[in-house]
Amino acid sequence: MVRVPLTDEERERGERLGQALRAARAGRSMVDVAAEAGISVETLRKIETGRIPTPAFFTVAAIADAVGLPLEELRAAVTPAASPSLSQAS
C-alpha cells in the first residue's frame, strides 16, 4: 500500500496540533503526559514537533485528556480561521 504524500496544509495542521498540545502540557513533563496518555515519550515528542502530522484520533484524544484540553478547543486551535468548520461541512 502506497501512502499519498501529505499536502502543505496537512503538514501545517499537524504543526498547529503539536503546538496546541505542547502549550496545553504547560509545565508538565513529556514523560508524565505520555505515561498518562498510554503512549511513548517519543510518540508524544513527534506529535508535538509535527513529525507525526496525522496521528490516530484515539492517540490525540488520549493526549488531550491527559493535559485537560477539551477536544472542541483542540479542534478550534488546529482549524485555520479561514477554513469552514466540520459542523458547517455537514
What would you say this structure looks like, in words?
- The longest helix is centred in the first third of the chain and has 18 residues.
- α1 crosses α5.
- With 90 residues, the protein is an all-alpha fold.
- It contains six helices and no strands.
- The radius of gyration is 13 Å and the shape is globular.
Decide which structural class fits the backbone: mainly alpha
Helix content: 55-70%
Radius of gyration in whole Å, from Cα? 13 Å
Unreliable sequence segments: none
Overall geometry comes to globular
Strand composition percent: under 5%
Give the topology string: H per helix, E per strand: HHHHHH
Question: How many DSSP E strands?
Answer: 0
Structure annotation, total helices: 6
